[in-house]
Recover the amino acids of this structure.
């Protein structure tokens, strides 16, 4: 960031200034992400029974807001310079600084995205994606500065800043949209489908029906709850053991902290049509078909025979 502002001081380039302003966002966002990850790592307490993980989504949203504010300033500044283009100097030094910054941001962004995926940290992934996009933007700035350096077309510098600001607006809105969706507990299709795939692969005959499946994200942690239908002739000890085994196994679906609540339903006579227990002592109706569990019918709060 310091090198970019020094390059702007020497050159007067609007494109370099936009890149430097973007670096301010990187620094502020990284500081807040650091604090949010620390806060998210704290254990649950009486005031936060689900943990502190959602602070990471707030951190991502703040980063998006900062991007939009910087983009607004850049649009105003670049528009003025597009009308009255200032003299530019030392563009060669600015090219070297922007190129070096782009390479460093690209490497750091790639590392943060991978670390965020491994730890299921929204703040790390948002910061990493921001840095990766900043690296692409930096290469775009290098291209604009190079063209200006060899052609002396000063308007290219301001035009590049305008395009850079537009890309920043798109990026900021996308980050805010993802953060708001997570804060409102919008279903994450990738995580939801991964849990469903695990359930269908490990499905056993005693799991007569599974519905009302809900998954909430608290930063890197997950909260899963569902309704599971088991044979009504089982005693309480057997039901407890089955639920415990179910919770232990589903807790292995993702390498993160997973809290699971299972509501147990007793089977009904109508369940016989899709119950695969061969030696059921209380069967009233013959088995007719196996119900395919998918993202639609498992999310509904109704037993599957109601949808037949």
């Amino acid at each position: 960031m310091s090198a970019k502002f020094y390059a702007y001081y020497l050159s007067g380039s609007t494109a370099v200034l936009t890149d430097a302003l973007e670096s301010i966002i990187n620094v502020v966002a990284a500081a807040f992400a650091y604090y949010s990850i620390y806060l998210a790592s704290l254990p649950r307490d009486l005031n936060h029974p689900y943990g502190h993980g959602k602070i990471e989504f707030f951190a991502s949203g703040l980063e998006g807001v900062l991007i939009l504010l910087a983009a607004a300033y850049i649009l105003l500044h670049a528009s003025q310079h597009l009308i009255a283009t200032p003299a530019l100097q030392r563009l060669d030094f600015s090219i070297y600084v922007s190129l070096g910054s782009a390479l460093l941001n690209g490497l750091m962004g790639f590392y943060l995205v991978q670390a965020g995926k491994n730890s299921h940290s929204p703040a790390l992934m948002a910061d990493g994606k921001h840095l990766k996009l900043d690296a692409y933007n930096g290469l775009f700035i290098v291209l604009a500065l190079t063209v200006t350096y060899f052609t002396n077309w000063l308007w290219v510098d301001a035009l590049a800043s305008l395009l850079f600001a537009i890309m920043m607006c798109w990026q900021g809105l996308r980050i805010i949209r993802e953060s708001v969706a997570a804060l409102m507990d919008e279903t994450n299709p990738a995580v939801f489908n991964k849990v469903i795939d695990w359930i269908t692969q490990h499905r056993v005959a005693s799991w007569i029906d599974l519905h009302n499946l809900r998954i909430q994200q608290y930063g890197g942690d997950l909260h899963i709850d569902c309704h599971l239908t088991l044979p009504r002739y089982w005693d309480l000890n057997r039901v407890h053991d089955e639920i415990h085994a179910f919770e232990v196994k589903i807790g292995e679906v993702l390498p993160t902290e997973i809290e699971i609540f299972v509501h147990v339903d007793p089977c009904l006579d109508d369940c016989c049509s899709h119950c695969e227990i061969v030696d059921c002592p209380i069967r009233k109706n013959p088995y007719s078909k196996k119900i395919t569990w998918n993202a639609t019918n498992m999310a509904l709060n109704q037993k599957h025979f109601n949808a037949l």
